[in-house]
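Researcher: We plan to redesign the surface later, but first we want a full-length starting point. Tokens attached.
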């Protein structure tokens, strides 16, 4: 784990000697925090680790004393079970100039040999290179070993290539694991069948199927929780709003949701709100699903074939 922690500090954070490093953990992630603590010391810093009570939900604020400490750090590692990404404390720390790396749901095996053990410099270059290949794309087709066969338009939409894992500039922020390229499909254009075999608003024991027509999921089988959530958002909650694919060869489809969506050969699709990344779909809900062993065709040319990057 210490080797994985050191890799993150070197290639994601670009850690420099004598920088002020703050590692934030909870009761469940203390061992992981200690790995980061040892790694940061080995790189010439005098780090501090603070342990908080586990938060009850993603986005819950840390204690005020911790938030104050965050503002004086050069680098902050948020290594807690629940996400602190969308908190006022994190945003205020960034505004104060701190670099922040958020790793919600971190586990020991993710750090030792999974999606967190990637070289983030290499991931950055790969994401940028693939982004150039799909620039100005019009039509996408997604198929998978589990039976997915789905087409939709992305004409006029911009790919988001910021999920590279680099966090070396003052005030920068990233979440890890990273390594995904994603886009907001043109609303109302998705047609076909989606068979999620990894995740559909919850980990799946058996594949769940959604039939899509004019961008809207008309029928969903095998994902009762997802159906309930999507119905809360009305028609917009059942409309395809996001498509992305993973480029992280270290990430595993069998890992937690945050890792699986970044895995090479996996595609992540979202229903509901997409206004924060270039779409026009405003909804009160957002439901995500993950498909493994995918083939992605862009304007008739194969980009990913059966889980491997083509060309």
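Model: Full-length starting sequence:
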């Amino acid at each position: 784990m210490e080797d994985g922690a050191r890799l993150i500090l070197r290639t994601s954070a670009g850690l420099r000697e004598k920088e002020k490093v703050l590692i934030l953990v909870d009761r469940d992630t203390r061992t992981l925090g200690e790995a980061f603590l040892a790694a940061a010391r080995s790189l010439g810093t005098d780090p501090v680790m603070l342990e908080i009570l586990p938060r009850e939900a993603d986005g819950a604020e840390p204690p005020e004393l911790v938030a104050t400490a965050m503002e004086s750090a050069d680098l902050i590692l948020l290594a807690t079970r629940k996400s602190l990404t969308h908190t006022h404390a994190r945003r205020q720390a960034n505004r104060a100039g701190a670099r922040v790396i958020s790793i919600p749901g971190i586990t020991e095996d993710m750090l030792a040999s999974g999606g967190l053990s990637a070289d983030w410099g290499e991931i950055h270059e790969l994401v940028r290179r693939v982004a150039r290949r799909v620039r100005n794309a019009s039509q996408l087709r997604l198929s998978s070993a589990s039976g997915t066969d789905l087409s939709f338009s992305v004409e006029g939409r911009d790919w988001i290539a910021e999920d590279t894992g680099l966090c070396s500039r003052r005030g920068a922020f990233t979440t890890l694991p990273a390594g995904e390229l994603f886009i907001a499909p043109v609303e109302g254009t998705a047609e076909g069948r989606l068979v999620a075999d990894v995740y559909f608003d919850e980990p799946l024991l058996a594949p769940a199927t959604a039939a899509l027509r004019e961008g809207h999921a008309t029928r969903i089988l095998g994902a009762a929780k997802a159906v309930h959530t999507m119905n809360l958002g009305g028609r917009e909650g059942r409309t395809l709003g996001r498509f992305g694919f993973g480029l992280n060869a270290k990430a595993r489809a069998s890992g937690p949701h945050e890792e699986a969506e970044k895995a090479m050969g996996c595609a992540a699709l979202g229903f509901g709100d997409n206004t924060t990344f270039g779409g026009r779909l405003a909804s009160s809900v957002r439901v995500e699903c993950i498909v493994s062993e995918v083939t992605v065709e862009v304007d008739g040319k194969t980009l990913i074939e059966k889980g491997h990057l083509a060309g």
